[in-house]
Amino acid sequence: MKKHKLMVANRSEIACRVFQAAFEMGIPTLAIFVKGDEDARHLTLADEIAEVEGYLDVESILSVAKGRGVTLIHPGYGFLSERPHFAKAVIDAGIGFLGPLPETMEALGGKIAAKEIAEKLSIPTVPWAKLDMAKSSDAELKAAADRVGFPILIKAHAGGGGKGMRRVEAFSELKMQAESAAREALSSFGDGTLFFERYLQNPRHIEVQIFGDGKGRGVHLYERECSLQRRHQKVWEEAPAPNLPETVRSGLFESALKLVEYTKYRSAGTVEFLVEVLPDGSIKEFFFIEMNTRLQVEHPVTEAITGIDLVHEQIRLATGFDSYRLPDVVPPRGHAIEVRVCAEDPSQDFIPCTGTIDHLIFPSGPGIRVDRGIEVGQRLGTQFDSLCAKLIVHSSTRDLAVKKMQYVLRETVISGVGSNLGYLSAISHNPNVAQGRVSTLFLDQSFKDFHPNATMDAILLSEAFEKSEVFREPGTQGASGEPGSPSSWNSSTLWEQVKL
Ligand code: ADP
Q1: Which atom of ligand 1 is nearest to the CA of 200?
Q2: CB atoms within 10 A of CB 251
């Protein structure tokens, strides 16, 4: 059998996660780093390390890969993971790319092209229209807006990470907003192409994990709910999606598999949908929005409920393409939740925090997984994404998983650098979150004025309140009439007790 060596063209927690899989499969590994990133944790987990000019520098990465005898490259997520020219350069260098073919990325990676394929396959898409700001007359703009309907979301074809979207309420603002969005898209993504999409008023974001064998066969590995977002960026993800009618669920799976089969998709991918929630909480319809042609940040929740290691599958497929058999997919088991721990300050509009990590405590126990890219002594600056760890829990039921997440967040300590742990903890105690009744707007609306200390005080008080009978003032009921509502407590006494 051919001897392999695996490079991760990435850093932080995703590099660490892939190195673990390679280690388990007996494959030696090579980590890369750039100047200033020498103390990153991912470098301690690989067999070899090598400096490159940049995490986006294809030439430098490939020259190291060739020089060190690398046979497999995993792109992780972000950076070069969805750039067809990188996948092509890797394959042209005779190295296995742990992801889809460049042609598939080309076809599905662009939001417009992917919508066109979806429509061809009769997969529902949000009403949308293509736009060429340089060529469109006012009348064409008006016709496009009429087809889509207000409110309109202007999106950048090459956008990502929730960036480059603008909501427009009326035709009078449309042209000006579109012109400025095109300029912004050009400078941020190198491509000013835009499109209009109907803005859904209260959607849920639900996505389907798929895995294709590259020969036209594929499996879906169930759905993930990713509606808890801050400014369109995911914060808390779970599998399966709570309160989802089976008819909607099976429609999502069927649509996702159509894309896999049509494109002969190879490796892991995610098909993203928005599900429109009506005021009474029921679900009207679902719409395809885009496909991510890579391993997703939130893949661990899928691994938890299916027992399938997605990186193992990617490696098995790349190293034995002809004889590869798709994994047997069993019914989902239990419920899993992931939160994204970021070095950012919720009390200052989530600005990135910097500093040197001096202390780290992560809990362990049944159903707890920590994927982290940070280590004590590591300096965090602002040059990279603020995501530093993911906390994942798995329990037999959703209620228990939420409780486990509350515990994990309470027991996690990161010091030396600020983090969003307090924010995540407050989310884990929210009653709507507990019931799984949220939409993509929920966090921006309900946690708009989040203040970490005040919120944590309230949580601790209510936890103690739930736990204890001894603090109830004799003969009283709460003001609400509920036994022991917070108004019946002497909070200073309680606070002392909580600290014990
Ligand atoms: P990106 O690629 O930048 O992540 P997406 O198209 O995946 O952008 O959308 C990210 C998030 O933005 C969605 O999960 C949802 O919260 C919101 N969003 C996207 N499209 C719409 C829409 N048409 N209506 C309402 N919200 C939307």
Answers
A1: 24
A2: 17
The three-point CA angle 56-59-61 to 5° equals 65
Q: Of ligand 1's atoms, which has the minimum distance to the CA of residue 162? A: 3
Protein residue with its CA nearest to atom 11 in ligand 1: 232
CB distance 456 to ligand 1 below 6 Å? no
Q: Is 197 in the pocket of ligand 1 (CB under 6 A)?
A: yes
CATH number for the region 127-198 comes to: 3.30.1490.20
* 228 Cα: distance to centroid of ligand 1 (angstroms): 12
CATH for the stretch 203-446: 3.30.470.20
Gyration radius (Cα) of the chain, Å: 24
- Residue 282 — pLDDT band, cuts 50, 70, 90? confident
What's the pTM? Answer: 0.90
Q: Where are the domains of the chain?
A: 6-98, 127-198, 203-446
The values of phi and psi at residue 392, to 5°, are: -125, 135
Query: CATH number for the 6-98 domain, one of 3.40.50.20, 3.90.1150.10, 3.40.630.30, 3.40.30.10?
Result: 3.40.50.20
> Could you read off the pLDDT of 326-340 as tens digits, one per residue?
999 999 999 999 999
The answer to whether the CB of 203 is under 6 A from ligand 1 is yes
- Is a pLDDT exceeding 60 seen at residue 217? yes
Pick the catalytic residue from 166, 249, 266, 294: 294
* Active-site residue flag, 266: no
200 lines ligand 1 (CB under 6 A): yes
Model confidence band, residue 459 (pLDDT cutoffs 50, 70, 90): low
Nearest Cα residue to atom 13 of ligand 1? 232
In angstroms, the CA 373 to CA 12 distance is: 4
Any atom of ligand 1 within 6 Å of the Cβ of 229: yes
